[in-house]
Amino acid sequence: MRYCKSQQGYILILIMVLMAIMAIASVQFTARTSGSLKTFSQTRDANQSLLIAESALNTLYAHFAYNADLNQDGTPDNSAPINMATTPPGINLPYLYYFANNSTIGQQQPGILQSIATNEAQANPISSNNAPGFNPNQALRIDNLYSNNAGPLTYQQNENGLLIRSQLTWTQINASKGKAIAWLEAVRDKNNDSIIKIYVQAVGEYQSSRSYVQRFAGSYSQTIGGPLCALCESNTQTTRPTKRGEHS
Fold first, then answer.
1. C-alpha span between 19 and 39 (Å, rounded)
2. Which domain holds residue 88?
3. What CA–CA distances, in Å, run from 11 to 6, 16, 30?
4. How many domains is the chain built from?
5. What gap in Å lies between CA 8 and CA 2, rounded to an integer?
């Protein structure tokens, strides 16, 4: 009888040890599963934000390259003249921006997208707005693109996952799962002051992830308007996925 009681005690201890092992294994399995799901979710959001950004960029690029009249003034947007004789330069495209030097287009390389990506990631304060011509030292945020006379093209995903044009601003559709904005940046040709280069830039956001993309759209005359060579440079894209508020 004593032997049975002793054996029962050992069995009870063994059961308790096994239960403890199972509990630890369950906690570890749950943690690994949670981590895998979080990584999967982050990867999905990053991929989706990049897809949205590229869709917005390609939509604007196609409209601009193939004679669309998005500002509805009766002239194809890629034939709208940019008058460099005035200060600031006369630009009739509300979604075209530039870095200014003495109130005119002064940069030879695009930089607006990079400035926005950096300052959005660092959550820097929004600087004063003077769109479409920004100070090269200005710390830009998305809100700087909006003024009375300027604003990027805005897109958001509908219930079917399609990206559609919206009349709302970036902030007004902040609750949307997927959204994007696209615009143009003008820079001077380093070899010819009578020529400007146009870049299409876009930001896409899905859940907690953002992506930034850019594409060369062509060289244009600043006096008569119209494309000179829309494919004379490679159409490279630069992408920069980040989480909202994350330093990158």
1. 30
2. 46-243
3. 9, 9, 28
4. 1
5. 10
Which one, of 46, 139, 147, lies nearest residue 96 by Cα? 147
How confident is the model at residue 190, as a pLDDT? 85
Residue 111 lies in a domain: yes
Question: What number of other Cβ atoms are within 10 A of residue 39's Cβ?
Answer: 10
**Phi and psi angles of residue 119, each rounded to the nearest 5 degrees, phi first:** -80, -30
pLDDT digits (tens, 9 = 90+) for 216-228: 988 887 665 666 6
Q: Cα separation of 92 and 14, whole Å?
A: 82
- Buried b / exposed e across 217-243, counting CB within 10 Å, b at 16+? bbbbbbeebebeebeeeeeebeebbbb
DSSP-derived secondary structure for 20-41? HHHHHHHHHHHHHHHHHHHHHH
* 133 is a domain residue: yes
For 18-49, write each residue's pLDDT tens digit: 787 887 777 776 767 666 555 556 688 889 99
Q: Which helix (H) or strand (E) holds 58?
A: helix 2-65
- Whether the CA torsion 93, 99, 101, 102 is positive or negative: it is positive
Instruction: For residue 140, give every residue at least 6 positions away whose Cβ sits within 8 Å of its Cβ, in sequence order, or none.
Output: 112, 115, 116, 119, 127, 134
